[in-house]
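User: Please predict the structure of the protein below. I'd like the answer in structure-token form so I can feed it into my own downstream comparison script.

Assistant: Understood. Taking the following sequence of 180 residues as input:
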Amino acid sequence: MVDAEKLKLVEDRQALELVPTWEAQGWWYLAGAAIIVLIISLFIYSRRNKNFQDPDKEKREAYKTAQSDFAELGEMDPRGMAVGVSLILRGYLARTVKEPALFETHEEFIGRHDSLAELPDDVREETSEFFSKLAELKYGPGKEADPDLAGTDGDIVDVHPVAEGIKAEGKTLLERIHAA
């Protein structure tokens, strides 16, 4: 019959010895480092392009808006034109140089030492003088009390040329501020 000793299974190895082992080679480290660098580079690139905006885009858009606002100003008296021109210029300054002039009174604007700090000195001085002129027209005595606007017989003469002069001066100042 069959010998029981011959049918007995003999294991000459341990089970863990049969499991294949993996040894890292040098190029695996290089591939891993390259993948990490690639991921970081893509992340930085996507964030930079996502946040990138043309710095002059807002300035160009504000300029176009101000020009169209000037074109929409109709015929009006000097006081109304001064208010309209002042709002247009202050709105442009608020958008381009982050100037809070739109939300300040004339006295606050002129009294602030850092107003229009981003503009060159000559443009800053010209802007301050023009805003003072506009304030004079807006808050000064009415046209009835202005002898320059009264005719020889006391009748009020056409005030539209004065208003158009204010509008033209405002446009010129807008050009100078935009070019600065």
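That's the full token string. The chain has two domains: 22-51, 57-179.
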